[in-house]
Amino acid sequence: MIFIGFPIWWLLGLGMLIFLIMSVPMGVYLYKRRSRLLVPRGFGAWLLFLAWVVIGVGVLWADAPGAVPGGSMGRLLAFAWRIAWYVAATIVLLYVANLSDDELPADRVGRLLGYMFIVTTAGGLLGTFLPHLQLTSPLEMVLHTKNSFLLDAIHPKTAEVDTILGYEQARPMAPFAYANTWGAAYAFFLPFFVITWIWRADTRRRIAGIVVLLASLWPVVYSLDRGLWISLGVIACFSGLKMVARGGRRALRLAVAGLVVGGLVFAVSPLPDMIQARIQNPHSNNRRTLLAEQSVRSALTGSPIVGFGTTRQVQGSLSSLTGGDRPGCKACGAPPLGTQGHLWLLLFANGIVGTVAFGVFFLTRFARHWRERSAYGVAGCCVLLAFGLFLFIYDLVEVPLYTVMIAVALMWRARREADA
């Protein structure tokens, strides 16, 4: 329901909401078999994190150092939205992990995630070639809202158009709400696409998979997404080492051949020029650094244990109390404190305790599985490595975190069944 129909949900304005809606029947199913539920090691840290998020409601209207004082009830919407996603991610983790391979085959879930890579690729190509395309979704017509937070979730757009290189450049975002979400989704769905469309596929399916993979590189290159570029290199190195460890000399030869082919594709592609141009135009580096520093400083001096529940608008700009957005200079302002990186959101919204609990859960899962050589064990570790990188640069509350939880569930279940 969620993945097969995702392009339709996106067009209807339900692309983000469908995950939350379908968590209800999954939650009901888990409740019915609550006496037999299994949880992974480290789950206690995750429950502590959820509890700490809920505690944050008590500080939603506390004034944060360096932020605009006061606040409206709209702050509760962003808070509730994040809690809903954290709960949905928890439910899908337990749902996938507690079903046996007869009830819900791992390969079926892997194929769905591989299919989502194809959807992500199609959306990326659409955003690259039709960057100004926008639609008014039926849900948007019904709600008739002016709230920018809601509009991001229900208003279908194909791309964000920026002038990072000094001229207009499309950064694909379809079928997601943000360009950075598109980049995270690409990296997280990729390992499962490789498993189900290339590695464990017949000849015809493998050829189609290679064609899709090559086509996907076009929006990756022109997305100007440095975090995505680095994460793909990390995934390639880790999976290559695992392949060599599992397959010996034959796998080593295949890995070397893959590196040679990949190097040739890289050399003849526009990526080297794009990387050079992106390095020469750092664009948001300074602002990101200042925002991260101020978010951490505000949290540690104002509410280090609990945080502030959700983000806050910066008072003035990052360099001056009298700065801010003004006509003709959108970049003169600053994003809210606790954005531009999920780690900064955790520290600012949930304090040190919430941040540590969040990190302990995922570090525990990686530590339990990084030695494994099974397909879904390696795929899950690749996802967690990319996830760890993205924590510093992306906001990961929505589809990315949901996908990470599915990856964790698959590798935990594979390990459990192998042990049995």
From TrEMBL:
Keywords: Membrane, Transmembrane, Transmembrane helix. It comes from the Bacteria. The chain crosses the membrane at residues 6-31, 43-62, 82-100, 112-133, 181-199, 206-222, 228-245, 252-271, 343-363, 375-393. This is O-antigen ligase like membrane protein. It comes from Actinoallomurus acaciae.
